Amino acid sequence: MNRGPTRLRLLAALPFPLVLAAHTTLFVRWGDRLPDPLATHFSAGGGGRADGWTGATAYALIASGLLVALGAGWTLLVRRGALWGAWATAGFTGALLLLVLGDNLDAVDAATVTSPPAHLLVAGAAAGVAGLLGLALTRLVPPEPAVPPGPGAVQALPLGATEVAGWSRGAGSRAMASVGAVTGTAGLALFVAGPWPVALVLLVSGLLVLLLAGVRVSVDRRGLTVRPTLAPWPRIRVPLDRVEGASVRDVDPLADFGGWGYRVRAHTTGVVLRSGEALVVRKDGGQEFAVTVPDAATAAALLTALVERRGHGKV
To answer: Which of 108, 174, 266, 308 could in theory staple to 146 by disulfide, Cβ–Cβ 3.0 to 4.6 A?
Structure first.
């Protein structure tokens, strides 16, 4: 049994409960030394003087929810080569949250609290150290094996010599959409009542996850195209002259690719948003590209027909 994906997810999740425990411990221990509300937003052009405040209870809930959302997102989408990113994110976010508590410590009035701009450098340094630790922990995760070949060859779709045909279907991931929505919402909330750098990271991350949570898959005489449902870019295109064959394969995101989203394995790349059937395109050079999409058999049959017709010089 391959325990690599499970170990990877555990290591990606690990820094977030550690940061949450440290932040909660200090918040409780310093509870009687913190003002209520707390200064949580600081002016970038006014020497770091507070210009936004949040009630102590609301602050604790927002900070905890932020760490839980980030941890869930990284656990769901991480791959081996990006484990350092999970640790760097936890280090940066955790450092900012702890620095906010330190800024407010023993303040009589939250309106007088300041947060030096240098705190961003401190948070960046914490992210760097945590990222290096995550990079070192990557050694504990076995290299990702190639996706095993499987049955699923299809017959070519009957296609006349001059007949034009195209196929297009949408595919999406509810899990990714939920993570993106939660992360983006947390970012919007923190823009009002929290450190704006963290808010910006969350908002951008949430929008990116939402953007990649749904794709449109198309097959026509140009080959295979995969693009986000909500935007024309970024897109992945496999030109027809690079396609050697197409098949259908059942895919388990965790077991076969180690997670959801855009995945890279040995000899295989893929856009994996759900379990079930996937269109698998074999490219020249032996590389494969897989995308999970309903009615993959029709797409594979059409690609096979187009490849065969190209071989006869009729495309």
So the answer is: 266
How far apart are the C-alpha atoms of 138 and 8, rounded to whole Å?
8
Average predicted confidence (pLDDT) for the chain: 84
Quote the pTM value: 0.59
Cβ–Cβ < 8 Å for 123, 99? yes
What is the DSSP track for 89-101? HHHHHHHHHHHHH
Burial class from Cβ neighbours inside 10 Å (0-12, 13-18, 19+) for residue 112 reads exposed
What are the tens digits of pLDDT across the range 253-303?
Answer: 878 887 788 888 878 899 999 889 999 999 988 899 999 999 999 999 999
The answer to whether 93 touches 99, Cβ cutoff 8 Å, is no
pLDDT digits (tens, 9 = 90+) for 137-148: 999 988 755 544
- What was the pLDDT predicted at 147? 47
Tokens of 38: 């707390």
Stretch 119-126: mean pLDDT, rounded? 88
Q: Quick one: DSSP state of residue 79?
A: -
Rounded Cα–Cα distance for residues 123 and 239 (Å): 44
Among residues 294, 304, 212, the alpha carbon closest in space to that of 251 is found at 294
Query: Which residues have a Cβ under 8 Å from the Cβ of 32 and sit 6 or more positions away?
Result: none
Q: How far is CA 71 from CA 15, 16, 115, 143, 225, in A?
A: 8, 6, 26, 22, 32
SS3 219: strand
Per DSSP, the residues of 95-163 read HHHHHHHHHHTT-S-GGG-B--THHHHHHHHHHHHHHHHHHHHGGGSPPPPPPPP---B-PPPP--TT-
Cis peptide before 228 (omega within 30 of 0): no
